[in-house]
TrEMBL record:
Gene3D superfamilies: Vaccinia Virus protein VP39
Protein name: DUF4214 domain-containing protein
Domain DUF4214: 58-107
GO MF annotation list: methyltransferase activity
One Pfam family named in its UniProt record: DUF4214
Species assigned in the record: Aquifex aeolicus (strain VF5)
Alphabetical list of InterPro entries matching this protein: DUF4214, SAM-dependent_MTases_sf
């Protein structure tokens, strides 16, 4: 159907305008009522307000200013979102926003006086009359083509200016980032050189005293000297004494015999077992009671009760299946009140974990939580975890406890 402006009566136009007023008021009331104004400003006389300045604002800044001047309050989030969507879609002009706010229930109640309001209202109404809107928009373009062109050019310039500003900010950010990267590289470069030098020094300073047995030489080079290990293991003597353990103590994986020597000095009856026949022969020559056997084989044939079983840096050499059987047999062979002490590498410590597979006989690292659970599951009571061999405090003082130590030990007690 085609419409002609001559066919529209004055009554029909008035009726359309009344319909639009009701629609606008209804829409605006719905937006305004969702959030009650938190700050109300006294009514202002808009006669002295510079509309040109208001219309020079853009986006959310314009909407906020319009709310303050027309409704005397800050806009609610829904209001900002609603009017920004209308403005960005081109459905509303800035004048339309002013008219919409003024004709809302809240705006009519406040009665803000706006100089030139009707000049803003007439286009607002005409654009909303279906019959007239097409002719209005076309006529506006034909009458004011230069104005439309200026707006398009201004919009293009505005966008271009913002793009240039963003490019400039991006360039500055990139330069700043590059400077920080260069700075970090400069300050870390000497540290990397120091670390590399230390590694090479360690490689060339290995004292390979014993060429008859590979693992004995390996342990001397990487685990530490005999006296240093002996000093470290004194803590376990204190634990045995504190728990009232006296009598037979089985040291599984006795190695070079550091703990056996401590036991002998304190009057314990120490028994050592190890799968390394070279080390066992050396310990026999020194007078220790030792056997060249693995843990399960020894426990299965040993008939006497044991007061304590220790295994220092041993269980990481066992498969999980073997470890479970070893712990079950240990529980059976321990006397009531007997202790089991298991020391191993702490995989929560990044340095210890990084060096774990340096030993080719290591099977898998075992976290403290799992070993604790395993002892409890098998039946050990009063299970405790202690952490050993801390790193240098000045370097790693920020670490949590379990990340701070190279080794840990789990201690369990047999109680029936």
């Amino acid at each position: 159907m085609r419409f002609s402006i001559r066919n529209v009566s004055e009554q029909e136009v008035k009726r359309e305008i009344r319909h639009i007023l009701e629609e606008v008021s209804s829409d605006k009331d719905e937006i305004s009522n969702k959030h009650k104004p938190t700050t109300v400003v006294k009514p202002v006389d808009f006669e002295n307000i510079d509309l040109n300045y208001l219309f020079s604002l853009n986006g959310a800044e314009f909407v906020r200013s319009a709310y303050r001047l027309v409704l005397g309050r800050e806009p609610d989030p829904q209001g900002i979102e609603y009017f920004l969507s209308k403005l960005f879609s081109g459905e509303y002009t800035k004048g339309d926003v002013i008219v919409h706010l003024r004709l809302s229930k809240e705006g009519r109640k406040r009665k803000t006086k706006i100089k030139g309001f009707y000049k803003l209202a007439i286009p607002f109404f005409l654009k909303r009359v279906p019959i007239i809107s097409k002719f209005y928009n076309l006529g506006k373009f034909l009458i004011f083509p230069e104005r439309f062109l200026r707006r398009l050019i201004a919009l293009e310039n505005f966008s271009y200016t913002h793009i240039l500003e963003l490019k400039h900010e991006l360039y500055i950010l990139k330069q700043s980032t590059n400077e920080k990267i260069r700075f970090l590289e400069e300050i870390t470069s000497p540290l990397r050189k120091i670390e590399v030098n230390n590694i090479w020094t360690k490689e060339f300073n290995f004292g390979i005293e014993n060429k008859e047995n590979f693992y004995a030489s390996f342990e001397n080079a990487f685990r530490g000297g005999y006296e240093s290990i002996k000093e470290k293991q004194k803590i376990y003597l204190d634990i045995l004494k504190k728990e009232g353990v006296r009598g037979k103590v089985l040291d599984v994986g006795c190695g070079r015999g550091e703990f056996l020597e401590l036991l002998k000095q304190e009057g314990f009856e120490g028994i050592g077992i190890d799968v390394n026949n070279y080390l066992i022969d050396l310990l026999k020559k020194r007078g220790f009671k030792v056997f060249n056997m693995d843990a399960i084989s020894f426990l299965e044939q040993f008939d006497e009760a044991l007061d304590a079983i220790t295994a220092f840096q041993v269980i990481e050499h066992m498969s999980i299946k073997y470890l479970k059987k070893f712990l079950e047999l240990s529980y059976k062979k321990l006397s009531n009140g007997g202790l089991i002490i298991l020391e191993t590498i702490n995989p929560w410590n990044i340095e210890a974990f990084a060096r774990f597979y340096l030993d080719e006989t290591h099977v898998r690292p075992i976290v403290p939580e799992y070993l604790y659970f395993l002892l409890k599951y098998i039946g050990f009571k009063d299970v405790k975890v202690i952490f050993l061999s801390p790193l240098e405090k000045e370097i790693f003082s920020f670490q949590k406890l379990k990340y701070y130590y190279l080794d840990y030990a789990v201690i369990g007690k047999k109680e029936e």
